[in-house]
Amino acid sequence: MAETTTEKPVISSPRDPYKRRKTTRGNYELYSWVFMRASGVLLIVLIFGHLFVNLMVGDGVHAIDFAFVGGKWSSPFWQVWDLLMLWLAMLHGTNGVRTVINDYAERDAVRMTLKVLLYLAAVITVVLGTLVIFTFTPCPTGEPADLLPAFCSA
Fold first, then answer.
1. What number of H helices and E strands is found in the chain?
2. How far is CA 19 from the centre of its chain?
3. CB 67 within 8 A of CB 106
4. On the chain, which terminus has fewer CB atoms closer than 10 Å, C or N?
5. Quick one: the chain helix, strand, coil %, rounded to 5?
6. Cβ neighbours of residue 43 closer than 8 Å, sequence gap 6 or more
7. Residue 43 maps to a domain
8. What is the CATH number of the domain that holds 64?
9. How many domains does the chain have?
10. For residue 17, is pLDDT > 70?
């Protein structure tokens, strides 16, 4: 009697052609995931605090001008608040876009180029934003007194 074996055909996974080589990243993706959750919660607090102070306190959106920003940034508290908001938003957004690039860029060269451009844009934005927050002068010299904030001496 002849023995017949019927093996089931092996169907490869739809993602097989796009599998990347294994790397030894450790727990980087886990930490990235945890950072996204923690920074998202903190950003909600920072952004809603920012919106409340800028839009609800005082005259609302009509009061936002150079003097308003100068008054806020003359306080170290608001400088740190806005700096945290800038840094967390940029890191959070950069990490999210990095994930999208890793998911959709199929070729290694394209993926690397996109991530280098992303990191470059994030660093430039964070550095320029930080410089603006800490070098902002609310009382510029030589300006007419009616254009200066009330706390500036003419």
1. 4, 0
2. 28
3. no
4. N
5. 70, 0, 30
6. 85, 88, 89, 92
7. yes
8. 1.20.1300.10
9. 1
10. no
Q: How far apart are CA 58 and CA 93, in angstroms?
A: 31
Q: Provide CB contacts within 8 A for 78, sequence distance 6+.
A: 72
In a domain, residue 131? The reply is yes
Least-confidence region, from 26-40, 51-65, 95-109: 51-65
pLDDT, tens only, 60-75: 888 888 778 888 888 8
Q: How far apart are the first and last CA of the chain?
A: 109
Alpha-carbon span 103 to 87, nearest angstrom: 24
Q: Read off the pLDDT of residues 117-146 as tens digits, 9 standing for 90 and up.
A: 999 999 999 999 999 999 988 777 877 777
d(CA 76, CA 135) in angstroms, rounded, equals 12
Instruction: Say how many CA atoms lie within 13 Å of 18 toward its Cβ.
Output: 10
Q: Give CA–CA dist 124/129, Å, rounded.
A: 8
* Domain annotation covers residue 72: yes
pLDDT tens-digit series, residues 70-95: 888 888 999 999 999 999 999 999 99
Write down the pTM of the prediction.
0.73
Mean pLDDT of 39-48: 97
